[in-house]
Amino acid sequence: MAENLQSSSNDNGYQESTPKRSKIHHQDEQESSPDRLSALPEHLLVEILSFLEMKDAVKTSALSKTWKHLWTHVDKIVYVFDDRQLTAKLPEFISFVHRTLMQCTCPNLKKFALSVDDYHYHHELLDEWLQWVFKKNLKFLKLDLIVEGYCFPEWFYHNSSLVKLEINMNNPWWYNGEESVSWPSLKSLQLSYVSIWDGQVATILSGCPVLETIVFRSLDVIGSLNIKYPSVRSLKLIDLSDDGFLESLEIDAPFLKELEVLGRDFIPCFRLINVSSLVYAKFDYTPESTLVDCNVVWPEAAAKLLENVSCVKELVLGPIFIQTLSLLTLLSVPFPLLKCKRVKIRSPLMYYELLGIVCLLNTSPDLDTLIIEVVTPVEKLWLAGYVSSFSDDIIRTYLDGNEDYEWELTKNKSCFEFGFVKSCDKSTNSL
């Protein structure tokens, strides 16, 4: 395979030479001035190159003899194919990756990242690259590939050096669930655009004894997320697929400290079974439609979620959740008592959202700090269509008649932070 990849001299940017320099005025003066950058110690120059993409790092070899081979010593290797409209250049990029990767001499790699929108090349070559970097005691692997029909080889799931792993494969068959997993040093795992079911999660977690952070983005999660390992402290769910899987999704994580659920245009109907150790929770959804058809299911699900995280010390809620609190009030849905000390609200502060904020304050007797981040209103506000069925007089009755909070207000850009005066009776208050 390697023998078939020949070097090519072209102007696509994936080469080891640069165009001829143009003549510069006062060249004599420039040559007499000291090159302070090149005068730096070699290890500092290599560290600087480690922050560049490989195609840019390689170009520096044309600067001078000092720079000729410095790029081969970098410990962070990043390849990005961004010529999306010129897929004909993909073979040249693949050749460049193979040619330069095999020249890197650093014995301990901190990072290897490969990003290709449409990888339709030989799977064997990808295996060869991964096997090569694994032999370099790799710490951080990031793969962002659109590749069909590819499954990692068995040895991929046995690595003692990996500390951080990010996989975005757009491939539901990235892992068949049959291979054992042994990543004894892995602390952070992020999976995007793949399918995963409870059996796979259990197998992966069993092989990651020190795993601390899990991020699932745009996944089809089938079954339950049973995360009962004390080392796992943070779980972030982003844009989970709502193809019927969420209704059966259960999260059981008794040792989890932080939970974030972020997404677009889906109804979080999953259930939190046991998250008794949580100290931080964030629910923030960005709507892409009005979602009026879900005006009953969503508020009840939201109320249940808040009940399950009622003991957290810090709670962050996005615009849709604030609107939902208003809807809970209008529909007379029971709202749980919260024990939060600190609450952050991201909201455009529309009129009907004040209902939700009042509801939040009245059910948070231990609240010390409220932070309001004023965000730009979205085009289609989820609650707008539904709340129009309630008259202004009905809404106003929920906003009037209570004594105001006493505030200590600090403004920071688009955020307002309110510290409550301790002598204030917070049992009857509103905005």
Structure notes:
The strands form four sheets. A 14-stranded mixed sheet has the order 1-2-3-4-5-7-10-12-14-15-16-17-20-19. A three-stranded parallel sheet has the order 9-11-13. The chain has a two-stranded parallel sheet with strand order 6-8. Among the domains are: 38-147, no CATH class; 297-431, no CATH class. Helices cover 23% and strands 23% of the residues. Helix 7 (297-308) crosses helix 8 (319-330) and helix 8 packs across helix 9. Helix 9 (353-362) links the parallel strand 16 and strand 17 (369-374). It starts with 26 loop residues before the first helix and ends with a strand. It is of the alpha/beta class. This is F-box domain-containing protein.
Mean pLDDT, as a whole number? Answer: 76
Structural class: alpha/beta
DSSP strand tally:
21
Tally of helical segments: 11
Rounded to the nearest angstrom, the distance between the terminal CA atoms is 69 Å
Strand order of the largest sheet: 1-2-3-4-5-7-10-12-14-15-16-17-20-19
Shape: elongated
Assess the beta-strand content as a share of residues: 15-25%
Largest sheet: 14 strands, mixed
Task: Work out the helicity level.
Answer: 10-25%
Contiguous low-pLDDT stretches (5 residues minimum) are 6-12, 16-30, 289-295, 401-414, 420-431
Radius of gyration: 27 Å
Pfam family, one: LRR_At1g61320_AtMIF1
Biased composition (Polar residues): 1-17
InterPro entries: F-box-like_dom_sf, F-box_AtFBL13-like, F-box_dom, FBL13/AtMIF1-like, LRR_At1g61320_AtMIF1, LRR_dom_sf
Region (Disordered): 1-36
